[in-house]
Design goal:
This protein is of the alpha+beta class and about 325 residues long. It folds into two domains: about 5-135, Aminopeptidase; about 140-310, Gcn5-related N-acetyltransferase (GNAT) (Aminopeptidase, 3-Layer(aba) Sandwich), CATH 3.40.630.30. About 30% of the residues lie in helices and about 35% in strands. The protein has nine helices and eleven strands. The chain has helices at about 5-20, 30-40, 90-105, 120-125, 145-155, 175-180, 200-210, 265-280, 295-305; strands at about 45-55, 55-65, 75-80, 110-115, 130-140, 160-165, 215-225, 230-240, 245-255, 285-290, 305-315. The protein has an eleven-stranded mixed β-sheet, sandwiched between helices. Helix 1 (about 5-20) crosses helix 2 and helix 6 crosses helix 7. The radius of gyration is 20 Å and the shape is globular. It starts with 5 loop residues before the first helix and ends with a strand.
Length: about 325
């Protein structure tokens, strides 16, 4: 855990907002930003480096080191320089330092995500990164969405039932949630990455960090009626303070043995309809997919998600 005092964190968040002001879509709230930069993510170590000038933060990186699997990887999440301090080599110096810290931690591959256009992409190319996964963000405007149409779209799926809950997952569901989270290993990823394994304790750590980390969550999980086997899941996260009107559609997966029943569409629609019922003030949902994930893209577009922007995950052997 990296220690940064609250006053510095507040100024660092202001620098972060300036650095990414041109990006469409949601940015981290101060509460969420402060949690990530002090506590990080469960199952990962992190290091934070802040550059100050005249007592003001002007540049920063955060390095994430997965500990359970993919221990050859480090993530720059993020690296940024305040716009009025760019063009002086600060970013290059921070990248060199971050790569050195990653190597010192036994890592051989560095990842970062940026939009396909703009300063981040130019920086990545100039410093030897290559594209690992091409991605896109899409948004659904909840204010104009066809809610009656969504109810008509709900597919009749025999032999399965959907469980819905809000907030952290109850202890009795942790193992099953871990099972369906394993379905995300089928999503497009860098060829060097290993499958992630989610046992109950690993899932518990993630769930226990949700509330103190400034998040709330809506989850839908499908089970086969005959034997109760978990079959798939989807999740929507939102800021616990409901500050910005955004929600984030994250993982959706159906296990191989249960595919072909339209469970993915059922889960996403059921979860979204419940979100609308409970959170009518929300304005938009944003989701993120690999451009090669044709099946999930088709579901999103059928639901009315429209392209916001395109991103790359970049890789750099170190």
């Amino acid at each position: 855990m990296t220690t940064i005092d609250d006053a510095t964190l507040a100024r660092l968040h202001d620098a972060y907002l300036q650095a990414f002001a041109d990006l469409p879509g949601p940015l981290f709230s101060r509460r969420r930003f402060q949690w990530l930069f002090t506590h990080g993510s469960p199952g990962q170590r992190h290091e934070v480096r802040v550059v100050e000038e005249g007592g003001e933060p002007v540049a920063c990186y955060r390095l994430r080191f997965p500990e359970h699997d993919n221990t050859h990887i480090a993530w720059l999440d993020p690296l940024f320089v305040r716009p009025d301090r760019r063009g002086r080599g600060l970013g290059a110096r921070l990248l060199d330092e971050a790569a050195g810290r990653a190597r010192a931690n036994g890592r051989s591959l560095l990842f970062v995500e940026t939009p396909t256009d703009g300063v981040g992409a130019r920086f990545a190319v100039a410093h030897g990164f290559t594209v690992s996964v091409a991605e896109a963000r899409r948004t659904l405007d909840l204010r104009t969405a066809d809610w009656a149409g969504f109810r008509r779209m709900l597919p009749p799926v025999e032999g399965y039932e959907v469980e819905l809950w809000t907030g952290p997952t109850a202890p009795e569901r942790l193992a099953d949630l871990g099972t369906v989270m394993g379905g995300m290993n089928d999503a497009p990823a860098d060829a060097s990455t290993e499958h992630s394994h989610f046992d109950a304790e690993r899932v518990r750590a993630h769930e226990e960090s949700m509330v103190p980390g400034g998040l709330d969550c809506y989850t839908a999980m499908a089970r086969r009626v005959g034997d109760g086997a978990p079959a798939g899941f989807t999740r929507i996260f939102l800021d616990a303070d409901r500050e910005d009107g955004w929600a984030l559609q994250t993982d959706t997966a159906v296990l191989r043995a249960h595919r072909g029943h339209r469970l993915g569409l059922l889960l996403k629609l059921a979860n979204l309809l419940r979100l609308r019922e409970r959170e009518p003030q929300l304005e938009r949902v944003v989701t993120w997919n690999a451009k090669s994930n044709a099946h999930m893209l088709a579901i999103n577009e059928a639901m009315g998600f429209r392209l916001l922007d395109e991103w790359n995950t970049w890789r750099l052997p170190i």
